[in-house]
Amino acid sequence: MTLVGRYAPSPTGALHLGNLRTALIGWALARQSGGRFVLRFEDLDARSREPFRALQLTDLAALGIDWDGDPLVQSNCRSRYEQAFAQLEAAGLVYECYCSRRDLSQIASAPHTAPGAYPGYCRDLTPSERARKREELSKVGRGPALRLRSNQETLTFTDAVYGQQSGEVDDFVLRRSDGVFSYNFVCVVDDAYQGVTQVCRGRDLLSSVARQNYLHQLLGSTPPSWVHVPLVLNQKGERLAKRDGAVTLEQLRTYGLENPQVISLLATSLGFPPAKTAEEFLAYFDLGKMTREDWRFTPPAPLHQQN
Ligand code: GLU
Known about the structure:
Mean pLDDT: 94
CATH topology of the largest domain: Rossmann fold
Structural class: alpha/beta
Oligomer: single chain
Number of strands: 12
Bound molecules: glutamic acid
CATH superfamily of the largest domain: HUPs
Number of helices: 10
Helix content: 25-40%
């Protein structure tokens, strides 16, 4: 079976070193096995902007990362999401949740609940309680969110980098109160639709795997294999973000780092010799030998301070 890898950026700006490093690994894994590599723009978030899609494609191409077919754009796929959602609704697996952000933040700090897991407060309300809560929400101009009625179990899975893991499947949100489908839901629907067999992404998403595997089961699709990769951090040890300074290709160029140097920086950060092109990196990349540690990135000094 041909491996199908994917990269699924959110088009909220130029790609930064962390995004590029993940894309490079995912691409190398797919191409090493003679597989396909597909793209998907996760643009349901209000911060996504159309022009960033072209910019991100330019960034990937500049590093020599190529892809198969046209990238999928989630905002064009709403009817497909509606269909998958209707399938879950018809199976009685969706319920309305009236909890406010404040309710949820209190849950997050409650004992006996896995961090971030929803304990099912709105799961078993009576029809009259629902009607009352719906009315209260509509008075403040809000609607309910829609959650999955899960079996609330812990699932184990194997990650190619971090080994055996287990994660909580809670009644996670499928559709937000503003009608937007949730990341976990569309990610699963799209991975199935795009025939993705291997997902390579940042290790910050390890905690989503149990939920996504579970949803694949419910929707009758086969979950991909999982490859979570270490993160690029800023100097404070937080996940790298655009505000961290010289982190995009364009910014790095103004600091004297051209694309071959960026590839070589990424390769060495993963524990491999410097490579000047993606093809060179591909030739010796070995997932088993890749470092599992996050990489704290020190932005280069401006050119006039160098030498
Ligand atoms: N769109 C997510 C991001 O840009 C990636 C989600 C995924 O790979 O599953 O961080």
